[in-house]
Amino acid sequence: MVADVKALWQTRYRQEPPVALPDNAVLRALMSHHSVRNYLPDPLPEGALEMGIAAASSAATSSNLQTWSVVAVEGAETRAKLAELSGGQKHIAVAPVFLVWVVDLSRLERIAQARGLTAEALDYEEAFLMSTLDTGIAAQNAVVAYESMGLGTVYIGGLRNHPEEVAALLGLPPRSVAVVGMCVGLPDPAHQNGFKPRLGQDAVVHRERYDAHDADAVAAYDKRANDYQQEQGLPSRLWSVTASDRVETKQGLGGRHVMRSVLNRLGFALK
Ligand SMILES: Cc1cc2nc3c(=O)[nH]c(=O)nc-3n(C[C@H](O)[C@H](O)[C@H](O)COP(=O)(O)O)c2cc1C
């Protein structure tokens, strides 16, 4: 564990901080994030699962509509099926808890129907976008909470490989979809990743107006990220090459280019 935010900044960006930095426990925790893919099978400490969800519930939510749900899966058989549906990601079967984060417009529909209302607004893409954003914000609060308790997490976007099968397995109602999964468990100390460097603030921060002249900043990041790859014993590859290869064709979406029609079938009209 690196001690202070200046050291964490240097690790995250592989650059010197340009200014003196505020330092506190929350900032240190946020900047210490790394995904965990190797878990001990031990159960979570008592109350940890619920506390993480409470952190999620405490996040801001658009118009206080609270349009997300989470399915906490602890059963080994269901986790094994979800691992398979997510592209054979073994950590899902090993970590004791798998949280399935659900964009959930179904609850509002039920509430509206109980009052004899149509809930027309839920048919629009904006409602889906709003709910997706809220779900992600909530999930990230849970990540921070779990990490603060010494637990590890990794998001599982692979859960979107087969949204209809996941919906059937978990009994999700129409107008809800599992958008991301999350393993939660005790990290196996024998196998842990380092802190992956991120694009510098020279690439991602725009002052007053957007500036698209970012080629030098990206090239400099490529070099820093490649140094990390080599230190980790991973193949040497430039981030910009990997990232742009990934978006070159729809094949990079891993079969999820059909998402609009899948969402339509799950009850999202996306008008
Ligand atoms: C929405 C989302 C989906 C992700 N899906 C997966 C996944 O399916 N499998 C996996 O091993 N990691 C997944 N990740 C983790 C990313 O690969 C990881 O965050 C990224 O490589 C940066 O590494 P770090 O989190 O260790 O800093 C996902 C992350 C996010 C935010």
From TrEMBL:
It holds the Pfam family Nitroreductase. It comes from the Bacteria. Signal peptide: none annotated. InterPro entries: Flavin_OxRdtase_Frp, Nitroreductase, Nitroreductase-like. Keywords: Flavoprotein, FMN, NADP, Oxidoreductase. The keyword Cytoplasm does not apply. Gene3D superfamilies: NADH Oxidase (3.40.109.10). Residues 31-185 form the Nitroreductase domain. Belongs to the flavin oxidoreductase frp family. This is Nitroreductase. It comes from Neokomagataea thailandica NBRC 106555.
